[in-house]
């Protein structure tokens, strides 16, 4: 039976394993025929949506891997606006609003409020959290 | 659907607790049942007379006393952690229910989450 | 595989306060899934909850050189992690 998941990532790439574990889970869920309603980035997890990450070429580019996965499967990726603004992650709308020198939100991620998390939670069979380790 | 948001980090010097509080307020704003559970050093959120101006932060005590007004079901605190941090009915803010944070408590909720 | 009341997903190493709290809040009907640094609990066998079902995410186990699992710990891959999360009545990520 096909079930629906919302995934919440709260750990940042390159300081935690959270985006990597979440991607492994997401790919397995899709392979098993399940739906991923949305991926919500919260707290330090918003760094995954940065367009400016440039890891060394012999390391996996997790933001890029996630972007491709979301695009391929048409899964919405949402970064929490409050978490994002505090940590310097902005789209063009917020860049203009706060008169910042640049926008750095990676496609296909969007910025929205916690209501997106609440809605995903209601619509999904399971909501799973991927936190930073230690 | 009932949700328990757990806070196990102290109120200042870390942001995860604040982001957990935002999650709980957000659920309440969307008419979803939400309660908060403070464990470990997290119980220090619940101490009266916090004055955070000196570290340029907002006092979380004010946020928490507003929780029932915003539709939060309950503010729970782990009894053992309160004892460990010297918190009793005289030093806790109003409206806190002491509980034993154990496996039984978790079965009262459909969903339990940390903010990070 | 039998029903699991609560699946606890632990990705913190055994000395993290949340690891101790997780084990404290488990019942015999619960399952424990170790991921990330949570798998280091396998090297601290005396801390493993005796009564509960214990699973460990295989790439994380192998990465840390703990591939030789003891009898009451089951290794799972991501596909099995997805199945476990659906079998449990609720999931908590510590």
UniProtKB/TrEMBL annotation, chain A:
GO terms for cellular component: sulfurtransferase complex. One of its GO terms (biological process) is tRNA wobble position uridine thiolation. It comes from the Bacteria. Keywords: Cytoplasm, Transferase. One of its GO terms (molecular function) is sulfur carrier activity. Gene3D superfamilies: DsrEFH-like. The keyword Transferase applies. The keyword Transferase applies. Its main location: cytoplasm. SUPFAM superfamilies: DsrEFH-like. InterPro entries: DsrEFH-like, Sulphur_relay_DsrE/F-like, Sulphur_relay_TusD/DsrE. It holds the Pfam family DsrE. Belongs to the DsrE/TusD family. This is Sulfurtransferase complex subunit TusD. It comes from Marinobacter flavimaris. The gene is tusD.
From TrEMBL, chain B:
It comes from the Bacteria. Signal peptide: none annotated. Gene3D superfamilies: DsrEFH-like (3.40.1260.10). Transmembrane segments: none annotated. It holds the Pfam family DsrE. InterPro entries: DsrEFH-like, Sulphur_relay_DsrE/F-like, Sulphur_relay_TusC/DsrF. Belongs to the DsrF/TusC family. PANTHER family: PROTEIN TUSC (PTHR38780). This is Sulfur reduction protein DsrE. It comes from Marinobacter flavimaris.
TrEMBL record, chain C:
InterPro entries: DsrEFH-like, Sulphur_relay_TusB/DsrH. It comes from the Bacteria. SUPFAM superfamilies: DsrEFH-like. GO terms for cellular component: sulfurtransferase complex. One of its GO terms (biological process) is tRNA wobble position uridine thiolation. Gene3D superfamilies: DsrEFH-like (3.40.1260.10). This is DsrH family protein. It comes from Marinobacter manganoxydans MnI7-9. The lineage of its organism: Bacteria, Pseudomonadati, Pseudomonadota, Gammaproteobacteria, Pseudomonadales.
């Amino acid at each position: 039976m096909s079930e629906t998941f919302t995934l919440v990532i709260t750990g940042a790439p390159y300081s935690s394993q959270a985006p990597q574990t979440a991607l492994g889970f997401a790919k397995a869920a899709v392979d098993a025929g399940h739906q991923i309603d949305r991926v919500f980035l919260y707290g330090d997890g918003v760094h995954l949506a940065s367009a400016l990450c440039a890891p060394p070429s012999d390391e996996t580019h997790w933001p890029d891997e996630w972007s491709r996965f979301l695009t391929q499967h048409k899964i919405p990726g949402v970064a929490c606006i409050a978490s994002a603004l505090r940590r310097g992650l902005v789209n063009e709308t917020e860049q203009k609003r706060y008169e910042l020198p640049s926008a750095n939100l990676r496609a296909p991620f969007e910025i929205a409020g916690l209501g997106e998390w609440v809605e995903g939670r209601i619509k999904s069979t399971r909501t799973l959290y991927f936190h930073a380790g230690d | 659907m009932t949700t328990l948001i757990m806070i196990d980090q102290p109120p200042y010097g870390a942001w995860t607790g604040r982001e957990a509080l935002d999650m709980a307020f957000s659920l309440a704003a969307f008419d979803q049942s939400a309660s908060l559970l403070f464990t470990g050093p997290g119980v220090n959120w619940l101490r009266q007379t916090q004055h955070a101006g000196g570290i340029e932060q907002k006092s979380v005590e004010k946020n928490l006393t507003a929780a029932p007004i915003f539709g939060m079901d309950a503010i729970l605190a782990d009894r053992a952690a309160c004892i460990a941090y010297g918190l009793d009915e005289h030093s806790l803010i109003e409206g806190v229910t002491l509980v034993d944070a154990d496996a039984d408590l978790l079965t009262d909720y459909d969903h339990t989450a940390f903010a990070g | 595989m039998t029903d699991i009341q609560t699946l606890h997903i632990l990705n913190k190493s055994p000395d993290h306060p949340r690891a101790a709290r997780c084990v404290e809040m488990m019942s015999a009907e619960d399952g424990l899934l170790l991921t990330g640094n949570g798998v280091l609990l396998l090297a601290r066998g005396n801390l493993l909850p005796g009564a509960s079902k214990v699973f460990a995410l295989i790439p994380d186990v192998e990465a840390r050189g703990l591939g030789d699992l003891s009898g009451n710990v089951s290794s799972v891959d991501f596909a099995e992690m997805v199945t476990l999360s659906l079998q449990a009545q609720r999931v908590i990520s510590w």
